[in-house]
Amino acid sequence: MGSCNVIEHPLLQHKIGMLRSVETGNKEFRELVEEIATLICYEATRDVATVDAPVETPIKRTMCKFIEKKFAIVPIMRAGIGMLNGLLNLMPTAKVGHIGLYRDPETLRAVEYYCKLPADIEEREVFLIDPMLATGNTASEAIKYLQARHVRKLKLLCLIAAPEGIAKIQEEHPGVDIYTATCDEYLNDHGYIVPGLGDAGDRLFGTK
Asked: How far apart, in whole angstroms, are the C-alpha atoms of residue 205 and residue 208?
């Protein structure tokens, strides 16, 4: 079964606390999301394979480690876009795809409205990103789209997760590892994470 990795680094937890606050404005919220995404990406790439290759330093020739694997980053629109630059800061050559899904407010099911992926997506290690893993329905559907396009190496990165969402991903996609800064208490009757941070998309883009 895929692992759920809750990253408890003090810097990360400090930023999550700031992110939660109702007093945090849109500009600061966007900056915090990007910073947190970078820190989560650092942990999610810890097991990436490297190869040795020679490098000529100003002093002498030496062997160094390099990453050969190609990456792709796929944000779930729209809130996932807020995390994108945080990953690109560490992986600037990664290709970027987009999956457009929204959660039906009545059924809480994911509805697709857009999908555009790199042509060679199946050759890449993919990082699927979305700030909130709530019911898990949206993330699960996005994973199905990617697997249908022959993606085999896939990790899910989110800022905050609910136990219900984690359980759904682990049940339906046992080979997918989850990386998150925190696992919150539960979902309320409206499908929002408690204590959470509200609607990540609205807070990112100032739409509410």
From this structure: 8
Whole-prediction pTM: 0.91
3 state DSSP class of 173? coil
Tokens of 139: 């993330």
What radius of gyration, in Å, describes the C-alpha atoms of the chain?
18
Q: How many CA atoms lie within 13 A of 42 on its CB side?
A: 13
Architecture of the structural domain at 4-47+70-195: 3-Layer(aba) Sandwich (3.40)
CB-CB contact of 92 with 86 (8 Å): no
Owner of token pair 């490297």: 50
Give catalytic residue positions. 103, 107, 199, 202
pLDDT digits (tens, 9 = 90+) for 136-160: 989 999 999 999 999 999 999 999 9
Tokens of 194: 């408690």
Q: Residues near 14 by Cβ (< 8 Å), separated by ≥ 6?
A: none
